Amino acid sequence: MPTTPEELEQIADAPHAEADDLAGTFALQGNPAPRPQAELDEILQKPGFGVHFADYMARATWTADAGWHDKQIVPYGPLSLDPAGAVLHYGQEVFEGLKAYVHDDGSLWTFRPAYNAARLNFSNYRLAIPELPVDDFLASIVDVVRANARWVPAKEGASLYLRPYIFASEAFLGVRAAAKYEYLCIASPAGPYFPNGFTPINVWVEQDFHRAGPGGMGAVKTGGNYAASLLPKVTAAREHYDEVLFLDAATNTNLDEFGGMNVFVVYADGRVRTPRLTGNILPGNTRSCIMQLLRRRGVDVAEDTLALADVIAGIKSGEVSEMFACGTAAVVTAVGSLTGADFKVELPTHEVSQSVYDELTGIQAGKVDDEFGWLYRIG
Length: 379
Ligand SMILES: *Cc1c(COP(=O)(O)O)cnc(C)c1O
Prior knowledge:
The chain has helices spanning 5-13, 19-22, 37-45, 87-90, 113-126, 134-147, 223-238, 285-296, 308-317, 351-364; strands at 27-28, 56-63, 67-75, 93-95, 98-102, 108-111, 159-168, 180-190, 201-206, 243-247, 255-258, 262-267, 272-275, 301-304, 320-327, 331-340, 343-346, 375-377. It has 10 helices and 18 strands. α1 (5-13) packs antiparallel against α5 and α5 (113-126) crosses α6 (134-147). The strands form 2 sheets. Strands 1, 2, 3, 4, 5, 6, 7, 8 and 18 form a 9-stranded mixed beta sheet that branches. Strands 9, 10, 11, 12, 13, 14, 15, 16 and 17 form a 9-stranded mixed beta sheet that branches. By secondary structure, it is an alpha+beta fold. It has 2 domains: 5-192, 2-Layer Sandwich (D-amino Acid Aminotransferase, Chain A, domain 1); 201-358, Alpha-Beta Barrel (D-amino Acid Aminotransferase, Chain A, domain 2), CATH 3.20.10. The chain binds pyridoxal-5'-phosphate. Pyridoxal-5'-phosphate binds at residues 97, 221, 225, 257, 260-262, 282, 284-287, 327-328. It catalyses: L-valine + 2-oxoglutarate = 3-methyl-2-oxobutanoate + L-glutamate; L-leucine + 2-oxoglutarate = 4-methyl-2-oxopentanoate + L-glutamate; L-isoleucine + 2-oxoglutarate = (S)-3-methyl-2-oxopentanoate + L-glutamate.
């Protein structure tokens, strides 16, 4: 299983099986009650984010004897879980997030899915969960999207958001890695994150709580990190901040990332910096792609230690011109202001942020040349 961010890049960039060769790995079971077309049309007009769920989901089970088995596409619906199921007590769970798109010619695509496949195993390793083979992950994406093809919204900026996840389902209260796991992939139509255009967010810089600490789980995609981010988020939302930026737990001085997005700093001289992956920061696919896109433009982009004090001083002096957040869900979000217990600074410029957003969403929509080969054809 991959144990470093470099290995995620290698796996993502290696050749992978094509959709037609993987299709059918997850056997389709009929849906007795698919959503009526009129209802679906209404949903796709205004999908929101994560509120409507497509007719089918992928599922598989892992046991020590049989490995991953019972790979199926089944009707979306409630799970049956023993109340002693280990995930409910010790949080042994990992997840992913990626999107499927329909292009103007009706073809179905997703974006760099092998990165997500690799990162799921990067997370599995840290949480002592068994490996899910990359081909099984890719097959589940192909099969779940093909089964839900009519759920992929065609509007610009819209997509079918895919949420693969694994959790410990063994009924056992002892503390050890579980002996039984469930894999699922559900699908949910998503509208453009900013239906009214590119809207900068107001950010609260959290100096009392951290989302992750040295040696912890900050680099992997597991629910526990999100649980740790919610109290600061609730407090900040009360003061009308849109997002929370976390500092490193060891020194409380350097930028780590947002609760669910990575951060970039753009300097007036053109250079761009993002926090280096210290082990507390999630290696984002979007982060990785943005670094490659900027490098192709000839921009001086690098990973570095970014002290909050330097960033604030830079914003005040004009040395820092922009900041943005990035992740699969919102793609790129410009930061409009940064506030903490004893400071408030504003960032009025968003040109670079906007251009990165345009380029990346253009590639995803099939309207900008996909020079890096990130698009993966589903059907
Ligand atoms: C998922 C996630 C990101 C963004 O990763 P992408 O692969 O770009 O979607 C960033 N930070 C955290 C904590 C995350 O969970």
